[in-house]
Amino acid sequence: EISELLTNICLNKGIKHRIMNSGAGHDAMHMAMLVPTGMLFIPCRGGISHNPAEYSSPEEIATGIEVLAEAVYRLAK
Length: 77
Known about the structure:
Layout: H1 2-13, H2 27-31, H3 58-76
Helix pairs in contact: 1-3
């Protein structure tokens, strides 16, 4: 449900996206047993994350915030 919402927001806004399954043991894995849950990732240069070399541009961060804000707005209605 949440992944579909995030996908629809990206499609409506013309934001390039992809659906990914995370194999990591994020907190969302546990929360999903209680409530609808999804994760929103933003691109990191070179695909490097969870590392001091991780970098996302301010534009990518702003786009992620835009999608997240729209999702929160829609879910709060």
